[in-house]
Amino acid sequence: MIDLEEIRIVLVAPSHPGNIGAAARAMKTMGLSRLYLVSPESYPHAEATARASGADDVLARALVCQDLDEALRGVTLVLGTSARARSLEWPTIPPRQAAERINAESGGEAAIVFGRERSGLTNSELERCHYRVHIPANPEYSSLNLAAAVQLLCYELALAAEAGPVDDPTPAISEEDPREAYAEQIEVERFYVHLEAALAEIEFLDRENPRQLMRRLKRLFNRTRLLRTEVNLLRGILTAAQRQAKLARGG
Amino acid sequence: MIDLEEIRIVLVAPSHPGNIGAAARAMKTMGLSRLYLVSPESYPHAEATARASGADDVLARALVCQDLDEALRGVTLVLGTSARARSLEWPTIPPRQAAERINAESGGEAAIVFGRERSGLTNSELERCHYRVHIPANPEYSSLNLAAAVQLLCYELALAAEAGPVDDPTPAISEEDPREAYAEQIEVERFYVHLEAALAEIEFLDRENPRQLMRRLKRLFNRTRLLRTEVNLLRGILTAAQRQAKLARGG
User: How near does any CA of chain A get to the CA of B162, in Å?
Assistant: First the structure.
């Protein structure tokens, strides 16, 4: 079970400073406080402070990051909210189940990522997420305000925390043995970079049209939630394959 | 089960027009559309339209009312949101249970009433409600934005509607027999006026300090949810008692 205080709310490139303030307020009403802002268009801003309305301590502690990876440093469970349908569907859960999933987390840190007001998350950003969170909404008008979406997720998190810990649906992992910990998101991201390079080198991946392949692989690995030991093992395999490719090219 | 389209969202004296627009948007994302505005400070207003952001059809259909009774005309189930603790506690349920309660409603119309941004609902307004809805929140900062509260309630209503009808916890009432219908709120309100007058006439009620007594009685009757036939019966009793009091005074 994760302390509400430890859950990160990550806003990717919010364009309206008022939404940042309203999101801070929504978080605080539900007991959350760790706000991460990835490349906000206008921040700090008087409108953000005005709309925070008493939650200015959350704003004051907010961290501004250059990119999503920076905001996810140290995080082991990433959930991304998204209203858009995708060509390749990501494992998708509703807010209640997302909160239960975070509540079941036995260690590490969790983040919920919210996309841009107009365009949401890019595919590349969504690929950093273990789950896509979809808020059920009116099919003819599903455009929730950013802060309203933050409010709903934080509300479900607070209810789940109140209900207490539930069984972790993923295999039990010893908290005592650091080698058995989930990999941090940045480690998985480095693995993906390594994987893509290796696949190109062994001429399995066509760099001209690489995307769908990597997305399918990321979806697979994200669903399993890799342990740190597993990431190291997989990267060892990649290095071995790269060595063979280099030898094959006469390197 | 009540159609989402039939559930009224009633905002009592909202002071910020932006909140009205944001509430309309929150409603529409969850499939609700019937907005009632009781004495809004500034409406219509450009800020309301701007924040509605595509939900302007909900705004266009919104009804502006002089007082809460007007907004509740025809309603048989009233729920009032309130963060404030009261000297006399009202039956209080969380949003999820409120949505289930409305979902279990077999006929008639339902309204969820939201109070002023700063001061909420008055005691007199809360006394028109069968239940008080309390959103569980951070005890140190429970100040949800008005539109955020509307979003949470509409979200729970949409989930409950999606889950389908549940058993009505109140006694079954024949929908065919109009005499067995729940009383409308305005009929109950007239009964309360009658009750208070009668209690004063029979010298049970001290007009100098009447409030706690009437509130206790209203709490009792609201909890039972009166049928129309029962209201008529009770008023008949009151009239009989008043006649006795008048005779006693030598009338």
Answer: 10
- For chain A, report the end-to-end CA distance as a whole number of angstroms: 50
CATH dotted code for B4-163: 3.40.1280.10
Q: Tell me the pLDDT of chain A averaged across its residues.
A: 87
Classify domain B178-248 at the CATH topology level: Helicase, Ruva Protein; domain 3 (1.10.8)
> Is A137 in contact with B22 (Cβ distance < 8 A)?
no
Q: Where are the domains of chain A?
A: 4-163, 178-248
Which residues in chain B (92-111) have CB-CB distances under 8 A to chain A? 96
* pLDDT tens digits for range B9-34: 999 999 999 999 999 999 999 999 99
Element containing residue B195 per DSSP (H, E): helix B185-201
Task: For residue B138, give both structure tokens.
Answer: 């951070």
Residue B2 has pLDDT above 80, yes or no: no
Does the model's ipTM exceed the 0.90 cut? no
pLDDT at B87: 61
How far off is chain B from A248, nearest CA to CA, in Å? 57
Residues with Cβ within 8 Å of residue B231, at least 6 apart in sequence: B183, B187, B188, B191
Is A30 in the B-facing interface, judged by CB distances under 8 Å? yes
The alpha-helical segments, DSSP class H, found in chain A are 17-29, 46-52, 56-61, 68-71, 95-104, 123-126, 146-163, 185-201, 211-224, 228-248
For B170-191, what is each residue's pLDDT tens digit? 444 444 455 568 888 889 999 9
Residues B10, B2: Cα–Cα separation, whole Å: 16
Of B30, B96, B145, the CB nearest to A138: B30
Inter-chain residue contact A136 with B152, CB threshold 8 Å: no
- pLDDT tens digits along A84-137: 666 667 788 999 999 999 988 767 789 999 999 999 999 889 888 989 999 999
Contacts of A155 in chain B (CB under 8 A): 135, 152
User: Would the CB atoms of B26 and A144 count as touching at under 8 Å?
Assistant: yes
Question: Is A136 close to B159, i.e. CB distance below 8 A?
Answer: yes
Q: Are B55 and B28 in contact (CB under 8 A)?
A: yes
